[in-house]
Structures are given as C-alpha cells and as structure tokens.
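Quick one, probably user error.
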C-alpha cells in the first residue's frame, strides 16, 4: 500500500493534467466552502470525480459529507468556490440545474412511491404519451430494457408495486430511474444501509455496472468493507475539510479509519 495522498486538485486545471494528457474529470470542485451562519460546514474542498469510476466519500458523522453532496446536487449553494463540468465552469445551484447537467442523487429514502408499480415510479413526472394518452406499452418496454442493461435480474414483474420490493430491489429501481433519465453522475447516499448480505452484493454489483457503462458514481458509506469492494477512488472528509483523496489502492482500512477519526495518518506503505 502506498501512502494516502492529500486532496489532489488544489488549483483548477480544467483541461486535465498537462503532463499526463488526461482529460478533465467529469466534475471538479475547487475551493468549495459552505457556511450556515456561524457554522462552517465545508472548508475549501477540492475534489475531482472522473467519469466511469466509483468515488467513495467517507467520514464520521458531521464531517460534511451530506452538505457536500447537497452542494453537488444543487440543494445548497456554496458560499464560495467553483464547479467545473467536463472542464467548463458551471453554476448548478438548483436541483433542476444539476439534473440538466446529468447529476442524479439517490438518497436513503429513495423517493419512491410504494403504492405505484415499478413502471409508474420509473416515469413519475416524465410519463410518455401518445395522442394525449399514456403510452403504457412503450414505458413498460423501456423499463424492462433499462433493468436488463443494468443486470437487475431479481425483479419478477415491472408491474409489481414498489411497496412489495426488498431494500436492494428498491435501490435498483431508484438507480435505474436515474440512468433512464441519462444521468452521467449518480450520487448514492448509504446505499447498503440496513441491507442483508445478498441484497448488499446486488447493490454493489449494480454500482460496478454503472461505472462500467461510463457513469461516474459518488458513494457515501460508513461501511468500509463495501467501500473497498467497489471504490476506484476514496475521498476522506474530517470536520468539513477534505483531508485526503486518491486511488483506493493508496489506502487500507487502518489508514482510512485514522483519517476519518483524526484527519491525518501516520501510516505509510
């Protein structure tokens, strides 16, 4: 294991790394700060989120993880700082603006309607019509295809009520809905919380499938076993500051825990 690195994007380079020729990340945050009155929730956060990779955002309760994803999702407007989308400066300070870029957030409550079936949930607010009538056939076909593309095989019928689904299946529907709306970055808040072993594996497999399709995934999780199972990159928050970020291979459980609890690590390769 090599030594964990500190946040890599101390200054914006919107064309990527000149030395390596790497393209700009899908999303780059530069010096993002957020305060709520006298409370400083985020302090000069620099973070790159590449396309086609899983970035795990970890930290203790109150570290600033939820505030950061709400800034990315357009719920909170940052007090200061800049955001770049594919190298272009953007101001996605509303949920609609973030969604138009291709940012979708799957919160712990999933925002699903238990009394509607899977198709209705997938198209809620985006229903397809033909001659002013719901095009049920097209919506069902597209729903089936999206689930198949994501290798979701545990759903018996897309006409099942969402209220009858397991926790893992509900996660799959929420993610599939985001993919069907052309999300380029999917943020997942504690996606395996309260799930059993089999359901957790299914959700982790789904995360890996998203990345393999070129979609960026930002996962918040307290479960370090899950983090190391799927993450390509790890970012560690401590007291509102991003104290470390880099390839997952640069970390192990001990160094991650030390960073989470103290904001620094003495561990090296």
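Nope, works fine. Designed sequence:
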């Amino acid at each position: 294991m090599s030594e964990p690195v500190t946040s890599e994007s101390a200054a914006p380079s919107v064309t990527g790394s000149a030395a390596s020729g790497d393209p700009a990340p899908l999303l780059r945050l530069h010096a993002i700060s957020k305060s709520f009155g006298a409370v400083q929730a985020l302090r000069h956060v620099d973070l790159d989120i590449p396309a086609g990779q899983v970035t795990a955002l970890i930290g203790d309760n109150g570290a600033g993880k939820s505030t950061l994803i709400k800034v990315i999702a357009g719920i909170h407007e940052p007090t200061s700082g800049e955001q770049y989308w594919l190298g272009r400066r953007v101001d996605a300070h509303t949920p609609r603006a973030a969604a138009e870029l291709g940012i979708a957030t799957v919160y712990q409550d999933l925002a699903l309607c238990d009394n509607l079936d899977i198709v209705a949930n997938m198209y809620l607010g985006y229903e397809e019509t033909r001659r002013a009538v719901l095009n049920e056939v097209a919506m069902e076909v597209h729903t089936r295809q999206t689930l198949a593309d994501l290798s979701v095989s545990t759903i018996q019928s897309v006409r099942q009520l969402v209220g009858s689904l397991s926790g893992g299946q509900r996660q799959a529907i929420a993610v599939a809905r985001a993919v069907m709306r052309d999300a380029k970055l999917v943020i997942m808040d504690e996606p395996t919380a309260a799930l059993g072993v089999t359901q957790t594996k299914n959700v982790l497999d789904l995360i890996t499938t998203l990345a393999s399709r070129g979609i960026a995934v930002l996962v918040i999780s307290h479960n370090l076993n899950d983090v190391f199972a799927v993450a390509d990159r790890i970012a560690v928050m401590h007291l509102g500051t991003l104290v470390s970020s880099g390839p997952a291979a640069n970390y192990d459980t001990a160094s991650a825990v030390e960073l989470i609890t103290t904001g620094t690590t003495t561990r090296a390769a």
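The mean pLDDT is 90.
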